[in-house]
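Consortium newsletter contribution from the modelling node. Members have asked for a concrete example of what our holo predictions look like. Here is one, prepared for the cytidine-5'-monophosphate complex that several groups have been discussing at recent meetings.
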Amino acid sequence: MTRLNIVVGITGGIAAYKAVGVVRALVLAGHDVHVVPTEGALRFVGRPTLEAISRNPVHTELYEGVAEVRHVAIGQAADLIVIAPATANSIAKLAAGLADDLLGNTLLASEAPVVIAPAMHTEMWRHPATRANVETLRSRGVTIVGPAVGQLTGADSGPGRMEEPDVIVRAALERVLGEASKHEASAHRGDLAGRHVVVSAGGTREPLDPVRFLGNRSSGKQGIAIAEAARERGAHVTLIAANLEVAEPEGCDIRRVSTTLELQAAVAEAAQGADVVVMAAAVADYRPASVSEAKIKKEQSDDGLTLELVRNPDILASLGNAPHPGTLLVGFAAETEADDERLFELGRAKREAKGADLLVVNRVGWNEGFASDENRVVVIGDGGAVVARADGTKLSVAHDILDVVVAQATTAAPAATTPKESETE
Ligand code: C5P
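And here is the predicted structure:
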């Protein structure tokens, strides 16, 4: 095992207490961890805790240890720098290259990969200044993990929660060690260049009245991972986003929708001339027959409430069962079936019924599939054959699915693999 020298920068946000979990996990994984907290971070978590957990002395002061040139030595020696939590202020400082404390100096003096886990209130995360700073960091190769969506420090909730320590640690180590170099970006780079890939992600919501809806537990993570992976491989990506619970990916053309009918209209428009359409969204099969203009009151129906639902159009089936030359259609099936063979059988039947070229089957349950960062799928192709099995992070599963898409497009649809004329000019 490679023992890495890892700097964990902790900045001044309430999520600093969770950074202790990041440090601990990295130490337990056998790495040499040096914590560099800002003064603000030390208001949330004490130096003795950080020293005990990291098993190394903890410094913050620029003017301590001057003889050992500590302000550059820590950064120079690092194999990896993780900043968790990264506040809006620290992201701004990092983007600007400010070095007014030990962490700022460490970052400037280092050539190591940097992984940051932002944590802040939703308004701050969405602020154009933060968006621009994050984009700057991303363009410099900084890996951004999260933020997750959920309960924030106050009563509010939304994107801004720091990702869980295990997610941060996995992403950080993957950044340096590679996921066994399984998905080296260079291995795929450009194999979807010039292609238009449409991805639907998230879950539709069908309103009952102005405050309620029928929805599902899809977070949108797998669809977003497919959009990100396709973009990494050079595609122009249209992401049709239905009520995402995670931050939208950068670099995609995003169309936000909520209901199935809105999703249908957006897909119909985007799919025209697309090379690949991936229907990863969880789409409601039914919607309320009518939407109440006013909030439904319990006093209206003392004996319970019966909802009348009508069928929604099947978007994938209507694309698949119409001619779609040059467009590869990928559907998803999320099933609770426990038996593998029966699960595959459901996938085969769904592929046939919907006229999809590929059908990705995954098992879902109360604790499986939805909000998690990992997935296990099989891909059903021509003749109902299992053409791929994938297991790992949602991003690595996304690449495995796109490997099949690229291979399929090469053999089945020359139009989708030869660069379009306009792109060869
Ligand atoms: O029938 P089921 O919902 O299991 O099918 C799942 C696949 O079909 C997914 O790819 C989903 O995006 C798509 N779908 C659709 N329109 C619907 C229901 C599902 O496109 N009304």
